Amino acid sequence: MGNVIELDIHTLGKGFGAEARGVDLANADEATLGALVDAFEHHGALLLRGQKLQPADLMRYLSRFGTPEEHTLKEYTLPDYPNIYILSNREVNGRKGSHYDGVGWHTDYSYKEEPVKCTMLYAVEVPTGGGDTLLADLCAAYDALPAEKQQQLDKLQLHHSYKYFMETREFGRMKLSPELEAENPDVFHPLIRTHPADGRKALWVSTGTVRGIVGMDKAEADALIDELIEFATQEQFVYRHKWEVGDVLVWDNRCTLHTGTKYDDANSYRVAYRLWAKGDKPF
Fold first, then answer.
1. pLDDT tens by residue, 63-77
2. Which of 13, 205, 186, 192 is nearest to 105 (CA)?
3. What's the rounded mean pLDDT across residues 26-53?
4. Which of 88, 183, 189, 245 could cross-link with 271 by S-S, CB 3.0 to 4.6 Å?
5. CB of 266 closer than 8 Å to CB of 139
6. Inter-axis angle of helices 55-63 and 30-43, to 10 degrees?
7. How many CB atoms lie within 10 A of CB 167?
8. What is the spatial distance between Cα 34 and Cα 29, in angstroms, rounded to a whole number?
9. What are the helix (H) ranges across the chain?
10. Alpha-carbon torsion angle 116, 129, 122, 246, nearest 10
């Protein structure tokens, strides 16, 4: 029988998310990594502060959550580490990372048939102000809906489109190449998603990739999506993370929305590494 690891867990806020204290990821054994993943499965997000990690350390930790996922835009990945995506406004060796990626409420890779399970961010350099990450607890939002509204939404399917997202987004707008368009066909996912760990329900609405709702005209669909986003991102459901160098934050894309906030990119720098673990088909 293996060792039972008891983590020092503290709630991040409003009953959502957890911080595990006293863990040195670079030197953590497999039992400790497994305990961290177990905590993540039931808290929606997991934070560790004060870490000093090399890319290989990040890959080892991520791999405990699942198979590392590749990134659609390969030009922003770390040399020799195609699964590590650079978010940065600092130029290094003649290249920058992706700058304002992640601004606007969304869940990562929702335009894929099997969206990513989790997103991991590691703070290498943080700006003097701004650049926060906000996480919305979609399970708490679902639970707060009236039963009649839950039943109404349970039948609905969202139309997600990478092409639509990239051609209409505020930052980094671009027309897809035929290759990228072929690699990222439109997909359809349930508006109410069931978490595979324990069956809890999430109001799995999003912006950006959502083109509409199946069987509903665009004006009606857009109005409902806006209503649900406004509901799910109320302050009572949201945790705001203010970054410190060495933070490692992992959130569960199956039950959260997230957005970044802008910062003074003319006078301060931000460098973070983003990693994804593969997920499964929403149900």
1. 999 999 998 778 889
2. 205
3. 97
4. 88
5. no
6. 60
7. 12
8. 9
9. 30-43, 55-63, 138-143, 147-154, 162-168, 178-183, 218-232
10. -150
* The total number of residues written for the chain in this structure: 283
- Out of 3.40.50.1400, 3.40.640.10, 3.40.50.200, 3.60.130.10, select the CATH number for domain 8-136+239-277: 3.60.130.10
The C-alpha R_g of the chain, in whole angstroms, comes to 19
Identify each DSSP E strand in the chain by its residue range: 8-13, 16-21, 45-48, 77-78, 81-88, 118-125, 133-137, 157-160, 187-190, 192-194, 201-203, 210-213, 238-241, 248-252, 256-260, 271-277
Angle at 144 between CA 141 and CA 149, to 5 degrees: 95
For residue 231, report the phi and psi dihedrals to the nearest 5 degrees.
-65, -50
Rounded Cα gap, residues 145 and 204, in angstroms: 13
Question: Domains of the chain: which residue ranges?
Answer: 8-136+239-277, 139-232
pLDDT of 152 above 80:
yes
